[in-house]
User: Fold this.
Amino acid sequence: MLLPHRLTLNERRQLSVTGVSEVVSFDENIVVLHTELGTLVIQGKELQLKTLSLEGGQVAVDGTVAALSYEEPRASRSWLRRLLG
Assistant:
């Protein structure tokens, strides 16, 4: 079942994310989340996880958000397909 993915950012201080399947890592400068639409990287200062409900797929982050970006998934292709193009 796919959870709806939504980002809500209030004044760069409070971020709410839905559709989260896993918290990969977090510290005060970066939070990495697996979402239904790819890996989301949140960069900033004094970042804190305030809400974490993986059953509901919800995460809330407080702090100063500087950047939000998605990492592109790497295609898993066999060595023969890469060789032949």
